[in-house]
Amino acid sequence: LEFAGSEQPSPTQVSDFLGNLSAIPLETASIARKLSSIRSYFRFLVRERVLDNNPSASIRPPRRRRKLPIYLTLPEVEQLIAAPDTRTHLGRRDRTMIELLYSAGLRISELLSLTVAEVDLDEGLLRVLGKGSKERLVPFGAAAEDLLEDYVTTVRAEFPQLPRVTALFLNARGGPLSRVSCWKMIKACCRAAGIVKEVSPHSLRHSFATHLLDNGADIRFVQELLGHAHISTTEIYTHLSRERLREVFRLCHPRA
Q: Which residue among 34, 127, 202, 244 is the active-site one?
């Protein structure tokens, strides 16, 4: 972005400069950072009375494209759930955690903060404390119920029992399980299942929402299950479903 010392740069020049950056192409985040630097520089020039006004003041930064989250297909979910070695109490714990992340669409923080008292096996419900300390009731399916019942009544007792630890999922020493440990467990199970995607615990939440919408669930229902404050947050999963529709169309239609 160049201008002569006596020249007053215009908003058009700034817009053209940003347009050239888009054509390189640069990511929208990089362009937004450059615009922020340009604004700061022009504010300085206005303050030093080199310029009469800031030509970048009215320029809006480019809208960041929302990256579609990574999700698993149903066969991949089943492979991941089957990956832990259930001959050990740690493997049975891991399978229960993976099943619950998918069956209830939980955030990793919600899963790890669950206590035994917040699991209602009779009603098939979890009392979940979400973002902003908002509490919600989340149902879980029959597969998760079987694993949870086994874990609560049998498996959890096989861990060391530290005093005053109420967490549902325990580590090998009997303390609450950490986020890092949960991430490492998911990564290890992905390798064992032969899944090459960059999967995180949150990918199971994405899969939960995507599969519900793909199978006809109302978006308001999915919003409630996920604990989203705004419907716009849930709408990204409709984009995933549309991408899936396009993919199926391209694969299956003879004139796609």
A: 202
